[in-house]
Amino acid sequence: MEKFPISEGNFRLGFLRPSSSSVDLNDQSMISEASGQSPASGYSFPYCRTSSDASAFSDPTDDSSFCTEPSPAPAPTGRGTRKYKLAGQDKLDDHDAMDSEVEMMKERFAKLLLGEDMSGSGKGVCTAVTISNAITNLYATVFGQNLKLEPLPAEKKAMWKREMACLLSVCDYIVEFFTESQTLQDGTALEVMNSRARSDIYINLPALQKLDMMLLDILDRFHNTEFWYAEKGSMSSNSTRSRSGSFRGLPLGKEEKWWLPVPCVPSCGLSEKSRKQLRNSRDCASQIHKAAMAINSTILAEMEIPESYVDTLPKSGKASIGDTIYRYMYSADKFSPEHLLDCLHITSEHEALELADRIEASMYTWRRKACLSHSKSSWELVKDLMAETEKGDKNTILAERAETLLLSLKQRFPELSQTTLDTSKIQYNRDVGQAVLESYSRVLEGLAFNLVAWIEDVLFADRSLRNQD
Asked: Per the record, where are the segments of Polar residues compositional bias (predicted)?
């Protein structure tokens, strides 16, 4: 919860997408590479929650909040008095818990109203960015230390559901108005205004809530499992061999995170039933990841491009993308983005992200030129028809090919952090509904990606052991 303006370099700190390896979410580095897979290294948001020992609403001098012993005459066995005291203590505990809950909600609400500016001077961020950060920070608080396939602790699950319901409730009041006809009893037809949930929220929010529930259900399945975890470099007492490293296979030889726990399996390997459950859970989490990514991409595409990003666009798309890529994109009769990516030999996620930024900048530069070429007066269009037609077609074709290349790059690197344009959109976005949908889909995308990676770790450990035998 954190999705986020803040920044790591290019405001990448909380806006990043999950990375192929899980990250320590307590590491302060972002507003962007949020992913349990990280934008630059993972969701990393500082999130402090304090709750007062006593509620501001309670009066310490009010004796009504305390229970006293019943009668001065003790019961013959003493049991009645003890039972009464225990009941009174339970009431006190419930009262304290309620006070703490009230204080926590007051603090959260105050931070939202202040726009994260605790000085009260009005220099805080806008409501949309505040809620986006809140969702990202909540995700980091609840799931940040969860690096294993195991059910989420009950208190953290309750916190996630309770606070997400609170943050999402703002969408109940984001509506659009429409006219509808009503007929009175006397036959008079009237047109009246009515309201309904805004279309993007009506379509996407229920879908995201369903994906959220499915991810929690997947985690709940992993109790009393046949596999277990050991710290990296440790020897498992139930294992037949030492595991000095994580079994997660990262693309492009990316080094493992040394602090991640290592999955261990019995010496005889997993049972077929357990293996089947893991595969089914992996396939389900993979589909959830794709669905969340699709929603997130759609919402980001609908956000307005900030003027600050437009001002930084290069004057020439060719200069931004480089001569090699430009020549292939311009001269190829049948453009193949996959073949081009193979020829580029990208060796790291950092290189992939840098290339994505350059491609995106070139794409919008060419689109801008294509639009400008059609904004002339009618006489100028007639006068320069032949020359401008060829030029306009070239810009349009190059922009379309750049978009195809960018899509292929993101599919090849699903853990890729958010691009400069995406983080810029999130930072300058003022639409609260879009902020909620974008941040919610982003954190679910990160959790689903992590689940797939963790399950692959266990299956890889099982395959390695069976192949060795």
From this structure: 18-41
SS (H, E, C) 36-95: CCCCCCCCCCCCCCCCCCCCCCCCCCCHHHCCCCCCCCCCCCCHHHHHHHHHHHHHHHHH
Instruction: Identify the three-state secondary structure at position 228.
Output: strand
Contact 1, 443 (CB under 8 A): yes
pLDDT of residue 32 exceeding 70, the answer is no
| CB neighbour list of residue 268: distance below 8 Å, 6 or more residues apart | none
What is the model's pLDDT at position 449? 93
Contact by Cβ (8 Å): 17, 35: yes
Which band of pLDDT confidence, cut at 50, 70 and 90, is reported for residue 395? confident
In angstroms, the CA 183 to CA 187 distance is: 6
Q: Residue 457 in contact with residue 263, Cβ under 8 Å?
A: yes
For the chain, list the domains and their CATH numbers.
98-197 (1.20.58.2010), 257-467 (1.20.58.1310)
Contacts of 271 (CB under 8 A, 6+ apart): 226
